[in-house]
C-alpha cells in the first residue's frame, strides 16, 4: 500500500490501535502503549501481522525491538524506515 | 466472505479421507491401547507430505493453503487425535514457526528434514509448575562464550519420545527466550510419560536438560521475545490445528451416532425414530456445522494474513473444543453401555475431546482473550 503523506501511516496505525484497545480509551501518539498496560498478550502478534499487511512490509527477526512498536510515533518511524523513506 | 471449498480443496479433502479410511481409522483404537503410533505410520504421513503440508515446495513441503491444512487436521482428527497431535506439534507449532521466525540457516537446515518427516519436532513449553501461566517458566538459559547453557525440566511434551528437534522455551537475563535443541545434545534425556486421559498414543515425555550446551546459532528468534514472538506464533498455529482436530472428533461422533441410531432397536422401534434421539442428532449437527464455519472462517482469514485471524482462531478453538466435548458426551449417551466400552471408538473420542480443552491455551485462557477483545471492540469478533 502506498503511503503518500507523512500523516498516512499514523492515521492507519491509530485506527487499528483504537479498534484493539477500545474507541473510548485515550492515549497520545507518543505514549508507550505497552507501559500503559493497554495491550494483552496476543497484541504483539496481531500488531506484526497488521503492520505487514497494511504497509506491505516484512517484519523480520531483527526488527523485533520494542522501541519500534511502543507508540504510534515510533511505529510510524519504523514503517517509514522499512519503506526506505 | 466465501467459505465454499475450491475444487482443489475438495480434491485434497477426498485424498485425506481416503488415507484416513485405509491407513488410520482401522488401527486408531489399537494405537490408543498400545500408547504409541508406529514409525511406519509416521513414514507414511511423511511420504504423503502431511508432515510438511504448509511448507513451501522449495523446502520439500506441499505448499497447502490454511483452509486445506485445516481439512487435513479435521480428517486426521476424525480418526486419531494422537496422530493429529503429531501434526500439531511438528507442523503447526514447530515447522511453521521456524518458517516464520527462523534464520536463513535454521530454515535451510531443518525445514527440508521436517517437511518429509526425516526429522520430527516437538515443542517444549510446559513445565511441572508452568502450563498456561508461561511467566512461571523455570527452565533457565545462561550465556556462555560460544552459546548458551540450558537447565530445567519440560513436562507433558507431545511426541517427546520420538522427536529429533525440540524448541525449548527458557528464562534468562533478557527474559523468556526460545532455542532449537537437538535430541543428541549431551545432558538432554527424555522420560516417557504414561497414564494420560486422552490422545494416549501421543508419546508424551518429560525432557530433562542438565547443563545442555547450545551453540549460538540455535537461538530461535530474539532474546527476550520468546513469548511474544515464538510462543505466541506457535500457539496461534497450534490452536488452528486443534480447532480443526476437535471438529473432526465431533463429526466422527455424529457419524457413528447416526449409523448406530439407524440400526439399534429400543422399545420396539429404531433409535432414529425416537423423538428424543432426533433432538440429540439435530443439536449435534447444528453444533458441528457452527464449529465447521468458525474453523473455515479462521482458515480463510489466515490465508488472507488478516490480523483478525488470531482472535478468530481463538474463537474457533474455544468453540470447537467445547463442542467436541458436548458431542462426545452425547454420543456416549446415545450408544449406552456400548459407548463406554473400548471395542468401539466413542469412548476414545470422549477422552480425546477433553484434552482439546486444555492444550494450546485452555478454555479459560480463550475466554479471557475473547472477552478482552469483545470489550475493546466487538466489531473485531462479530
UniProtKB/TrEMBL annotation, chain A:
Gene3D superfamilies reported for this sequence: ACP-like
Xref: Pfam families: PP-binding
Every Carrier domain range: 3-83
Domain of life: Bacteria
InterPro entries attached to this UniProt entry: ACP-like_sf, PP-bd_ACP
SUPFAM superfamilies: ACP-like
Protein name: Carrier domain-containing protein
Organism, scientific name: Chitinophaga flava
UniProtKB/TrEMBL annotation, chain B:
Family annotation (InterPro entries): Acyl-CoA_DH_CS, Acyl-CoA_Oxase/DH_mid-dom, Acyl-CoA_Oxase/DH_mid-dom_sf, AcylCo_DH-like_C, AcylCo_DH/oxidase_C, AcylCoA_DH/ox_N, AcylCoA_DH/ox_N_sf, AcylCoA_DH/oxidase_NM_dom_sf
Domain Acyl-CoA oxidase/dehydrogenase middle: 122-212
PROSITE patterns in UniProt: ACYL_COA_DH_1
Membrane spanning residue stretches: none
Cofactors demanded by this protein: FAD
Coiled-coil residue spans: none
GO MF terms held by the record: acyl-CoA dehydrogenase activity; flavin adenine dinucleotide binding
Family: Belongs to the acyl-CoA dehydrogenase family.
Protein name (Swiss-Prot/TrEMBL): Acyl-CoA dehydrogenase
Amino acid at each position: 500500500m502506498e503511503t503518500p503523506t507523512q500523516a498516512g501511516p499514523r492515521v492507519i496505525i491509530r485506527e487499528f490501535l483504537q479498534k484493539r484497545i477500545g474507541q473510548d480509551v485515550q492515549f497520545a501518539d507518543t505514549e508507550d502503549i505497552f507501559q500503559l498496560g493497554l495491550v494483552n498478550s496476543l497484541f504483539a502478534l496481531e500488531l506484526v501481522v497488521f503492520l505487514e499487511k497494511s504497509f506491505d512490509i516484512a517484519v523480520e527477526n531483527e526488527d523485533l525491538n520494542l522501541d519500534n512498536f511502543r507508540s504510534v510515533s515510533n511505529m510510524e518511524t519504523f514503517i517509514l524506515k522499512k519503506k526506505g523513506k | 466472505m466465501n467459505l465454499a471449498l475450491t475444487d482443489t480443496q475438495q480434491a485434497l479433502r477426498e485424498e485425506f479421507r481416503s488415507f484416513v479410511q485405509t491407513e488410520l481409522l482401522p488401527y486408531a483404537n489399537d494405537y490408543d491401547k498400545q500408547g504409541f503410533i508406529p514409525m511406519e505410520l509416521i513414514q507414511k504421513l511423511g511420504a504423503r507430505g502431511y508432515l510438511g503440508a504448509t511448507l513451501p515446495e522449495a523446502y520439500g513441503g506441499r505448499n497447502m493453503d490454511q483452509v486445506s491444512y485445516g481439512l487435513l487436521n479435521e480428517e486426521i482428527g476424525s480418526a486419531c487425535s494422537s496422530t493429529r497431535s503429531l501434526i500439531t506439534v511438528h507442523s503447526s507449532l514447530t515447522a511453521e514457526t521456524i518458517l516464520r521466525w527462523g534464520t536463513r540457516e535454521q530454515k535451510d537446515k531443518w525445514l527440508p528434514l521436517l517437511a518429509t518427516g526425516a526429522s520430527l519436532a516437538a515443542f517444549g513449553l510446559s513445565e511441572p509448575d508452568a502450563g498456561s501461566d508461561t511467566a512461571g517458566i523455570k527452565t533457565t538459559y545462561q550465556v556462555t562464550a560460544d552459546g548458551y547453557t540450558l537447565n530445567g525440566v519440560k513436562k507433558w511434551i507431545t511426541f517427546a519420545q520420538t522427536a529429533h528437534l525440540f524448541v525449548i522455551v527458557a528464562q534468562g537475563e533478557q527474559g523468556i527466550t526460545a532455542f532449537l535443541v537437538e535430541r543428541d545434545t549431551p545432558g538432554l534425556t527424555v522420560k516417557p510419560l504414561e497414564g494420560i486421559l486422552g490422545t494416549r498414543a501421543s508419546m508424551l515425555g518429560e525432557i530433562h536438560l542438565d547443563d545442555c550446551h547450545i551453540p549460538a546459532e540455535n537461538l530461535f528468534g530474539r532474546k527476550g521475545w520468546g513469548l511474544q514472538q515464538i510462543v505466541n506464533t506457535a500457539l496461534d498455529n497450534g490452536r488452528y490445528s486443534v480447532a480443526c482436530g476437535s471438529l473432526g472428533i465431533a463429526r466422527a461422533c455424529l457419524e457413528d451416532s447416526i449409523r448406530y441410531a439407524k440400526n439399534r432397536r429400543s422399545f420396539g422401534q429404531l433409535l432414529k425414530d425416537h423423538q428424543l434421539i432426533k433432538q440429540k442428532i439435530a443439536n449435534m449437527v447444528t453444533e458441528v456445522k457452527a464449529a465447521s464455519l468458525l474453523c473455515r472462517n479462521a482458515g480463510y482469514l489466515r490465508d488472507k494474513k488478516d490480523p483478525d485471524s488470531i482472535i478468530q482462531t481463538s474463537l474457533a478453538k474455544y468453540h470447537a473444543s467445547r463442542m467436541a466435548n458436548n458431542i462426545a458426551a452425547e454420543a456416549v449417551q446415545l450408544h449406552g453401555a456400548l459407548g463406554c466400552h473400548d471395542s468401539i471408538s466413542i469412548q476414545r473420542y470422549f477422552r480425546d475431546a477433553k484434552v482439546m480443552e486444555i492444550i494450546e491455551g485452555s478454555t479459560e485462557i480463550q475466554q479471557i482473550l475473547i472477552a478482552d477483545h469483545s470489550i475493546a471492540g466487538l466489531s473485531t469478533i462479530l
